[in-house]
Amino acid sequence: MDAMIVFRDALKSAHKYFRATVADVTSEDARYVPPGIAHPIGSRYAHCVTGDDFLVHVFLQGGAPLYETTFKNKTGISAPRLDAPLEWARAVQVDLPALTNYMDATFAASEAHFDSMTEKDLERTVDLTAAGVGVLPMPVFLADFVIGHLHDVMGEISAVKGLLGKKGYPF
After folding, report:
1. Domains, in order of start, for the chain
2. What are phi and psi of 134, to 5 degrees?
3. Which residues of the chain have pLDDT under 50?
4. Whole-structure pTM value
5. Region at 65 (left for phi over 0; alpha for psi -120 to 50; beta for the rest)
6. Cβ–Cβ under 8 Å, residues 42 and 94
7. How far apart are CA 65 and CA 70, in angstroms?
8. For residues 83 and 72, what is the distance between their CA atoms, to the nearest angstrom?
9. Shortest CA distance to 50 belongs to which of 107, 124, 126?
């Protein structure tokens, strides 16, 4: 088995479980401000999808993210942005049906790009110097920043769902 098969399957699995984690989130759940400095579910959901969109469309494809093109003003996110400072997280509003449509399109595009990647692509590097990370080998970028990010945010959302008395992870 080549490594790209593992990355493809891992991305599809992360998308599947993320979708299931947010499937029962209501508008009220999305707006709930948890104690401390934890972020509301809606902001984490928005951040995760825009992150997937940006990482794949910009860093892997060298293009523009869907939230600036096909989904401009249609993401369901009142103020889409890649970073997620606390002030933004507490202020951003999400329209869950529109955000779900944007998520579905983003995830489909990401999976299609992963399907087009070959073992040769894994020899590339990704320059995240501007973000203070440095230059990463492609496998590390895919595992940590694309797939790992989905799992990280899914955990945050699951924790806040737990505060609301709901089941977090779908398994």
Report:
1. 3-163 (1.20.120.450)
2. 100, -165
3. none
4. 0.95
5. beta
6. yes
7. 8
8. 17
9. 107
Q: What does the alpha-carbon distance between residue 82 and residue 52 come to, in Å, rounded to a whole number?
A: 10
The alpha helices in 23-137, defined as continuous H runs, are 27-31, 41-54, 86-91, 96-116
* Rounded Cα gap, residues 148 and 156, in angstroms: 13
Instruction: Give 147's contacts (C-beta < 8 A, 6+ positions apart).
Output: 7, 10, 11, 14
Which two three-digit tokens encode residue 161? 């769902």
Position 82 scores a pLDDT of: 86
Q: How far apart, in whole angstroms, are the C-alpha atoms of residue 35 and residue 143? A: 30
Looking up tokens 């809606």 gives 42
The whole-number pLDDT of residue 9 equals 98
